[in-house]
Amino acid sequence: MSGASELARLSLNQRTTASWTLREAIDGCVAAGLSSIGVWREQLAEAGVENAVAWLAEAELRVSTLCRGGFFTASESAAIEAAHLENVRALDEAAAIGAKTLCLVPGGLPAGDRDLRGARRRAAEAIERLVPYAKQVGVPLGIEPMNPIYAADRGVVSTLGQALDMAEPYAADEVGIVLDTFHVWWDPDVEAQIARAGERIHSYQVCDWITPLPADTLLARGMMGDGHIDFATIGAWVRDAGYTGDIEVEIFNADIWAAPGDEVLATMSARYLELIQPYA
Which one of 15, 178, 244, 252 counts the least CB within 10 Å of its CB? Predict the structure, then answer.
């Protein structure tokens, strides 16, 4: 098997090379022999959607995800409406660039709010409201459960089971989940929940859990192989659940962000071939 074909499912999430513009990330993927990219809305806005569509087509790159929608746990009516409209815009962008799914980060607790169950309920209601438009534009929604350390400020949906509970009222090709190893590796029920997810796995994202945690825990992700996650076991569970889509590397890490992007992609590709691809 050629190197190019071995990397056929590997996707660069733009946050892994945070200093790159979208144009630079596209060029970097092509140079590294990748055929897929996970796009972030901030860099997409800087580039312009029309430019991005042209660049992606020219490079023949798939868009594994658009990151991100969500952040819809607000309790005030004006903020709820604003979040809905922002997610509608995100769906329009995802449709334009052909994203396989819009990644939904549910959001944390509003300021001064301690009602975690209420925030989760509002997230579910926001998804219910968003589904008809997502169906209209043909973009599946992918709910991303987040590690519990982010429950207060970023993601009130903490487990794969909770995300699936929100997704299951809808068809699998309408609402599914984004499975990120960083967020779910610790969960004692994760094997059963991955099997339960099945065709609802809309994206499989990988990076490692490193210790000691940095002061800013948002930047606690490491390159695969630098931490504690058993990628062979989780990867086999995802494979056995039937997932055959892109495998996206998403790393928030100050040292990796400071490194030259082409070096990061070279390391990422080598670790993927060693630790991820054989079990996928």
Answer: 244
Judge if pTM exceeds 0.90.
yes
Peptide bond into 62 cis (omega under 30): no
Tokens of 241: 């659940």
For the chain, how big is the Rg over CA atoms in Å? 18
Compute the half-sphere exposure of residue 141: CA atoms within 13 Å on the CB side of its CA. 34
* Other CB atoms within 10 Å distance of the CB of residue 147: 20
Please give the Cα distance from 21 to 10 (Å, whole number).
19
Evaluate if residue 1 carries a pLDDT over 60: no
Query: Who's near 110: CB < 8 A, 6+ residues apart?
Result: 73, 74, 75, 76, 79, 119
User: How sure is the predictor about 2, in pLDDT bands with cuts at 50, 70 and 90?
Assistant: very low
Q: What distance in Å separates the CA atoms of residue 211 and residue 208, rounded to the nearest whole number?
A: 10
How far is CA 22 from each of CA 14, 45, 73, 247, 251, rounded to the nearest angstrom? Answer: 8, 9, 29, 19, 16
Residue ranges of the domains in the chain?
Answer: 3-279
CATH superfamily, domain 3-279, is: Divalent-metal-dependent TIM barrel enzymes (3.20.20.150)
**How many angstroms separate the Cα of 50 from the Cα of each of 26, 45, 56, 161?**
15, 10, 10, 38
- For Cα atoms 234, 182, 208, give the angle at the middle one, nearest 5 degrees: 85
**Identity (one letter) of the amino acid at 254?**
A
